[in-house]
Amino acid sequence: MNYAEYINLSNEEKFNYFMSTIFPTNRTPRYWVNWDKVRKNIQEYELSLNTLNYLVGKDNIMEEAKCLFQAQPQLLRAIPVLLASRDAELTVLELADDGAMNHYDVNFDKPDISKVDIYLKFMEETGLLEFLQKDLNQSLVDYVYGVETGLDSNARKNRGGTQNEIILERNLKSLCNSNPNLEYKTQATRNVMKKDWSIDVPELLPEGKKGGRRYDGAILNRKTNKTYIVETNFYGSGGSKLKSVAGEFSNMYIESLKGRQDIDFIWITDGPGWKTARNPLSEAFNAIPKIFNLNMIKNDFLSDAVKGF
Question: Between 278-285 and 11-20, two packed helices, what is the crossing angle to 10 degrees?
Answer without folding.
Answer: 130
